[in-house]
Design a protein that fits this description.
The chain is an alpha+beta fold. The chain is built from 10 helices and 9 strands. It is 43% helix and 15% strand. The protein has a 5-stranded antiparallel beta sheet, with helices on one face. A two-stranded antiparallel sheet has the order 6-9. Strand 4 and strand 5 form a beta hairpin. Helix 3 runs parallel beside helix 8 and helix 9 packs antiparallel against helix 10. The structure holds adenosine-5'-diphosphate and ligand LJ64HWYM.
């Protein structure tokens, strides 16, 4: 949609003096971003992406950028942040934090087939394993605490039918988060927003996951549930497509086998993942923040998914 902070070729030439990328050749704004200002930059060392962070602060960024660096170093396909000559991954540009990362090839696959879902599942499992020794800690900032804070802010805007669903699901999820299975689930850094628009493909070849700015430490199964709720559905109805679910979770399982606790937690976790995005979309729609430039997504999409996950058991995690 927009580039919020303009960057000229002269600005880039100056910035690149601190990076091992040679001289600046070209810079083009990327129009599709909704949160940050993004640019494709051409340098003597190749093509990269420059991001100016419009909402995140200098203090918030090391978790995300160091996680991407950590994953890239371990062969997970993610944009690799480029350190400047002082070793910094985040640098000031026009008074805001900025970073340069490698450019992924390809484009988003918005009509995924089982073969794409399998590639996503396998890479997601590889990412979870690679994150086990990542040193920084940050909770999932869109986890249960945030749901508890946000529910009373959006409830006044809902009709009784939806208010009842939200209260009942919050009650169900609080009980789920307190159960033994839940506490035994594997955890670590997760992407937490691995939707179709945050993964690149060239044909059937996955070239990378990007947009890590909702990442945090949470259960691996939550990450899988978020991903399945986007990649494996009929978009109009929210109904799961069994062939795509099978492809994604089987490919994940082949890299990091699911545990018995994860199997027991699967159905409630799919509901948790639907609730998380229903709530954030309600929040973005009804509680606009002055400093943010979000175009709210439609909350009814995730209301439908949540109702569907409550009504219809999903295919199991293990065939
Ligand atoms: N590392 C990257 N490699 C290639 N393209 C990228 C990369 N990062 C971002 N993009 C492109 O920029 C667009 C906007 O990025 P995104 O992270 O979604 O922005 P925002 O956070 O502002 O919504 C993406 O849809 C993609 O086309
Ligand atoms: N995927 C979320 C919103 C986050 O948007 P993104 O473009 O930054 O991935 C949703 O669909 O609600």
């Amino acid at each position: 949609m927009a580039v919020f902070t303009a960057v000229t070729l002269d600005d880039l030439t100056l910035l690149l003096k601190k990076f091992p990328l040679g001289n600046a050749i070209d810079i083009k704004g990327i129009s599709s971003g909704i949160e940050n200002s993004n640019f494709f930059i051409d340098t003597e060392r190749g093509e990269y992406v420059l991001t100016i962070f419009e909402n995140l602060s200098f203090a918030q960024l090391p978790f995300y950028l160091q996680l991407m660096r950590h994953l890239a170093d371990r062969g997970v396909l993610v944009p690799a942040p480029v350190p400047d000559e002082a070793g910094e991954l985040v640098v000031p540009l026009h008074g805001k934090p900025a970073a340069i990362v490698s450019k992924l090839e390809g484009g988003s696959q918005m009509a995924p087939q089982p073969v794409h879902c399998a590639a996503v599942g396998a890479m997601q499992a590889k990412m979870h394993l690679a994150g086990r020794d990542f040193a920084l800690q940050q909770p999932n900032l869109r986890g249960l605490d945030w749901w508890n804070d946000t529910t009373p802010l959006v409830l006044p805007f809902l009709d009784e039918h939806n208010a009842h669903l939200l209260r009942a699901e919050m009650h169900f999820q609080s009980a789920f988060a307190a159960c033994d299975h839940y506490h035994r689930l594997g955890r670590g850094p997760i992407h937490a927003d691995l939707f179709r628009n945050n993964v690149m493909f060239v044909g059937e070849r996955l070239t990378g996951f990007f947009d890590f700015y909702f990442a945090g430490c949470d259960t691996w199964l939550f990450d899988v549930a978020v991903t399945v709720n986007d990649w494996c559905i009929d978009v109009a109805s929210g109904v799961l497509d069994a062939a795509r679910v099978r492809a994604l979770v089987d490919a994940y399982h082949a890299v990091r086998p699911f545990t018995a606790d994860e199997q027991a937690a699967w159905q409630p976790m799919l509901r948790a993942a639907a609730l998380r995005f229903w709530l954030s979309r309600l929040y973005d729609l009804y509680v606009p923040r002055e400093a943010e430039m979000l175009t709210p997504h439609d909350p009814t999409h995730f209301e439908r998914i949540l109702r569907e996950r409550i009504a219809t058991p999903a295919p199991g995690l293990i065939a």
